[in-house]
């Protein structure tokens, strides 16, 4: 129980997952484009059903998605098509077993809010280890509750999200990044509700 904390919520609510996925799809496309034009080797940590990894691979990046939920990975594997450099592995984001500096970038999409704080920190530290010094970590998640967009989304999200969601949006990544020795290089939002944060080692 020290490494898996999603407890399969979305696995147990596939209709909700698909429903949310419909609205999130344009956000994922936008996020994938924000990775830049250079073709990168990317690890998508806590990939779930691989929707984010899939959008990255469509931008011609070389992508591996990892997750601890085999049911999620089964769904993810259906997104593998011959033209894409895309694969999925069963692995723990806190201890991936990849060598140091294996990737140009790591992405963590809509997962940090779902994972307890201490595990989130371990995932960020592991991401730092397996990403090159010149690389970056890209986090897509709920924004803090400062604007009208985030407050509207919060009205709904608090009804279905895990107990980690509320402390996450109140912290707004700041103590996560401080604890993991990361700093923000760039931040943008979608209607103030979803944040796209590019971070690097301090
Ligand atoms: C809300 S889902 C997000 C999925 C996906 N990234 C997306 O954008 O839709 C969170 C995922 O985190 C995974 N997870 C939780 N703890 C993990 C860990 N220690 N290592 C890898 N995956 C983990 C869960 O199995 C779940 O699939």
Short description:
This protein has 8 helices and 7 strands, in the order ααβαβαββαβαααββ. The chain is α/β, with parallel strands linked by helices and 202 residues long.
Notes on the protein architecture:
The protein is an alpha/beta fold. It has one domain: 3-Layer(aba) Sandwich (Rossmann fold). The protein has helices spanning 9-12, 14-33, 51-58, 70-77, 117-130, 148-160, 165-171, 174-180; strands at residues 41-45, 62-67, 86-90, 103-109, 131-142, 182-190, 194-201. It has a 7-stranded mixed β-sheet, with helices on both faces. Helix 4 (70-77) links the parallel strand 2 and strand 3. Helix 2 packs parallel to helix 3 and helix 5 packs across helix 8. The longest helix has 20 residues, at 14-33. The radius of gyration is 15 Å and the shape is globular. S-adenosylmethionine (SAM) is lined by residues 3-6, 10, 46-48, 51-52, 66-69, 72, 92-94, 109-111, 114-115, 119.
Show the helix and strand layout.
Elements: H1 9-12, H2 14-33, E1 41-45, H3 51-58, E2 62-67, H4 70-77, E3 86-90, E4 103-109, H5 117-130, E5 131-142, H6 148-160, H7 165-171, H8 174-180, E6 182-190, E7 194-201
Parallel strand pairs: 1-2, 1-4, 2-3, 4-5
Antiparallel strand pairs: 5-7, 6-7
Helix pairs in contact: 2-3, 5-8
